[in-house]
Amino acid sequence: TTYDDCWLRYDRVDDALRPGYRRRLTHAYVSEGAPELGAVRAELRRGLEGLLGREPHLWQHPPRSVDSFLAIGHPEEMRPISETIDVDEAWNLADGGFLIRTVEWEGQECTVLTASSDRGLVYGTFHLLRLVATGEPIDDLDVREEPANENRIVNHWDNPFRRSVERGYAGQSIFDWERLPDVRERYFDYARLLASVGIDGVVPNNVNTGIPSRPTENDAVADRAGWQLLARENLEKLEALASVFRRYGIRIYLSVNYAAPIRLGGLETADPLDPGVRQWWKDKVDEIYEIVPDFGGFLVKADSEGQPGPYDYDRSHAEGANVLGEAFEGHDGRVWWRAFVYSEHDDRAVQAYEAFSHIDGEFHDNVTVQIKNGPIDFQPREPISTLFGAMPETSLGCELQLTGEYTGQGVHTASHVPMWKEILEFDTHGDGEERTVKDVLADVEGQGIAGVGVVGEDESWTGNHLLQSNLYGFGRLCWDPDLSSEEITREWARQTFGGDEQVVETVTDILLDSWHACIDYHTGGLGLMHMMYNGEEALENHYDPAPWEWPEYHGATAEGIGVDRTSSGSGYAAQYRDPLTELYDDPESCPEELLLFFHHLPWEYELTDGTTVIQRLYDNLHAGAATVDDLRERWLDLEGSVDERRHRHVTARFDEHALQAKRWRDTLCTYFYEKSGVPDERGRVPTE
Ligand code: BDP
Description:
- The structure is a single chain.
- The protein has helices at 18-25, 35-52, 79-82, 87-91, 118-133, 185-196, 232-246, 260-263, 275-291, 317-327, 348-356, 417-425, 437-442, 468-479, 485-497, 501-523, 551-554, 580-585, 595-598, 613-636, 644-676; strands at residues 27-30, 57-59, 68-73, 98-105, 108-115, 142-145, 151-155, 201-203, 251-256, 297-300, 334-338, 367-372, 395-401, 448-452, 560-561, 601-602.
- By secondary structure, it is of the alpha/beta class.
- The protein folds into three domains: 18-145, Chitobiase/beta-hexosaminidase domain 2-like (Chitobiase, domain 2), CATH 3.30.379; 151-210 and 220-311 and 332-358 and 398-484, Alpha-Beta Barrel (TIM Barrel); 520-563 and 600-676, Alpha-glucuronidase, C-terminal domain (Alpha-d-glucuronidase, C-terminal Domain).
- Helix 11 (348-356) links the parallel strand 11 and strand 12.
- Helix 16 (501-523) runs parallel beside helix 21.
- The longest helix is centred in the last third of the chain and has 33 residues, at 644-676.
- It is globular, with a radius of gyration of 26 Å.
- It binds beta-D-glucopyranuronic acid.
- Beta-D-glucopyranuronic acid is lined by residues 166-167, 207-208, 301, 304-305, 340, 377, 405.
């Protein structure tokens, strides 16, 4: 292949460990039947050949002449499993869960891998291969794993046909609709990457299904936008894609356009209460299932940024979503309805809550409301969306962004894993007691986590080799939000860069330190955000600094900075449950890292340690850029320990990252100085 294997490199394990692994894994008795078991066998061959230098012998019955073997299958299908494992325990595992145990069977040692579902066997296989790839012992296994989140989905913002990727920084879309139903090797490899970390759903097309995101002058493909994927001829293509992902236990979904009954069905209206519209959606969903029997469902961006929706007919979002939910009755599918909706309110932070909190409990069972982690838009750090504490009667999904739209776009090394940890661990105080976002999510049926995709045609998949860790970390956290950022990052580094401890430690530390640096040089670290350049629509860049462009987001004036979002200001703080409202309302108790998100304060307002707001901004902006220099140095020190190709690639990214961090630092420092007239105590910010 010409593209990278990411964390599935399966580099040869240490000589000292190899004999032990070989003994246990060279003979494998694997059940047959489901397409997933074909994937299990193929991965064992590929993985063990790489790791152990020898392909395993695959058996269709228990191998008798060997001391030790691996058995993979469903609890009742295979005697070495049914006779050594509590079959009920295995059947009762949540979908995707698996057991791996070391047992003795008829005088032979046996490593048993079993699950309640075919995808569980796939996950278990990847888990076992990961243990080997990270040098863990496998002689006495007792593993029981179940996913914490029921749905773990990647949302691609890929524009079909034109193959551009909205907010994609790693080249063209990997999905080639013109050539489908021909399938590409890349689909298999992508499915393997996803399944290896437990992701079970893929939405291959952009939520913006109607308007092309990057218009060109002669836009011949504008009429071949994502909404057309629902057309019969494209459903055949969809099935070809689904047939690849199905082997890895992954279901395919579609982003749909709310006006599809008009655009595609030729109806006069898309009013959700119109009987003809209801029937049209029902027929369409039935038709999809005839072609794609394990279709996952729809993702909908409605009434948002130019997309049509139920507001066009004066209907609520619950009414809008339920017509789709009903269409899925009798099918195992789900509607993911995004809460990314603006309202009339001046403060954008307030808006999604205004549109959704009052319709809690009104959604059909098979509708999930998908909420972005923060109230603005995937900024380097945001407070956690108030909606997570406000919709106890609704299936909720949390939407995260894997791609670095506002965190350096495939160039900057910015791990999102620590940010996601902070989000999932945040206590919403939902029902008056401790309820973290991860608990809120885990408690209802039909819930899950969705991540906006990051891959493209680039040989590195993600535009920067180190950013593969965000795809890896996303899957691992969806599976087990209790894992620490450090565990996840180490695991990833070990599989991606091999067993040299110095390399693993350095890469892990670089990534763990990268998020704070990113916050500091992009925002000054006190809760400001959205200070990026937008530009002409066709160029929308969101990459360069331009604090003058959207002053309403930072509120800088001659007197002070920040936005009053307290209960008596825009009211955003009042959308939280107690005691959060109180906490954020008072600048004395508001956490410093969000202070200027909630408060407009004088430039020389004193922080707890006596430093002024303006001085802290200068200091943080400088600290962020300095950390990037340091991350770059640490990476440069790995020259010779990391293969040249990847070392050179990441070095080039770091060179640009270091420049860009200084550009942000200098632009923001100068802007704040010009607004405030207060010089930097340490003389770093030019005063003329
Ligand atoms: C935005 C992104 C835009 C997306 C939108 C969304 O910049 O590209 O279409 O979020 O999430 O802010 O729908």
